[in-house]
Amino acid sequence: MLDYEEEAGRYDASRGGEPRAAAAAEAVLGLIPAPARSLLDVACGTGIVTRRLAAGRDGLRVTGVDLASEMVRQAAVRLPGAVVRSDSRRLPFRADAFDAVSSVWLLHLPEADADVRRIVGECARVLRPGGVWVTTVDKAAAHNVGSDIDAVLASRPPRAARDEASRVEAHAVACGLVPAGRARFPGRGQGRSPRRTVADLRRGWFVTLPPGEPLADRFAERLARLPDQDRPRPDPVFTLRAFRKPAAQPDEA
C-alpha cells in the first residue's frame, strides 16, 4: 500500500487536481439533502475535495478528518481550524454530531473487511437521524476502462474489493442505514498512460505487484511495450452511493 505521508506532496497533481476534485464535490453535494448544515469529510486527504464541499453550498459547515499528518497539514491550509487528525475507525466526535458524512476514495484502502465495517459503523454513529452518508464504491473497477493497459493488467494477482458496492451496502444496512441514492462522476485527468502506469507500479500503487518483485518487473516490461507511451487512455468514472440514517419515530424520541 502507498505511504500517504510520502504521497501527500504529489497527491493532487497525480490524481487529476482541481478538475477531478470539482467533479467529486459536485456529485457528493448532489446527494446531500439541502437542509444539511454540517458535514464531516472522512479521509479528507489534502482537503482538495473538502474545500470544494465547503464552498459549494452556502451555510454548510464542513469538517475534515484524516490519519496522515502530512495530509492533515495540507488540508488545514485549505480549511483553517476545520481539520482533525484521527483514525477513521475511531472518529473523535459524539454520536449524531453531523447532518451528513462523506468518505471519498477510502473504503478500498483497508486490507481487512473488519476495518471497513468499523469505518462504516463510525460514519453511521456520528450521523444524526435523518442524515445521509455518501461514499465511493467499486474504485478499482472504475479504473478498468477497457484499454490496452487494462488488458495487460487483467492477469495480475487478484485482490478482494473491500469497497464492492454490495458489500458496502450490507455493512451500511447492518448499521441501521438505508439506501438513499447514487451518482457517478468522471475522474478527470486520471486516464492512465503506459508510462505513468509503470511509474505507479514502481511506487507501490498496485498492492498485489510489490515494487522490486520479479512479477512486477514483468508487468512493467509488458506495459513498456505498448504504443503511445504518453497518451492517456480514457478517464475512469467513479460511483457514489448514499445511505440515510432513519429519523427516530415519535415514540422513540
Kindly report the oligomeric state of this protein: single chain
CATH architecture: 3-Layer(aba) Sandwich
Number of alpha- plus pi-helical segments: 10
Shape: globular
* Strand order across the largest sheet: 3-2-1-4-5-7-6
As a whole number of angstroms, the C-alpha radius of gyration is: 19 Å
- Outline the low-pLDDT stretches: none
Give the CATH class.
Answer: Alpha Beta
| Percent of residues in beta strands | 15-25%
CATH superfamily: Vaccinia Virus protein VP39
Helix amount: 25-40%
Class based on secondary structure composition and strand pairing: alpha/beta
- Spell the H/E element sequence: HHEHEHEEHEHHHEHHE
Calculate the mean pLDDT score and round it.
92
Characterise this structure.
With 253 residues, the chain is α/β, with parallel strands linked by helices. It has a single domain (4-144, 159-191, 235-247), classed as Vaccinia Virus protein VP39 (Rossmann fold, 3-Layer(aba) Sandwich). Helices cover 38% and strands 19% of the residues. The chain contains ten helices and seven strands. It has helices at 4-14, 17-31, 48-55, 69-78, 113-125, 139-142, 148-153, 165-174, 194-202, 214-224; strands spanning 38-42, 61-66, 83-85, 98-103, 127-137, 178-186, 237-244. The protein has a seven-stranded mixed beta sheet. α1 crosses α4, α2 crosses α3 and α9 packs antiparallel against α10 (214-224). The radius of gyration is 19 Å and the shape is globular. The model has no long low-confidence stretch (mean pLDDT 92).
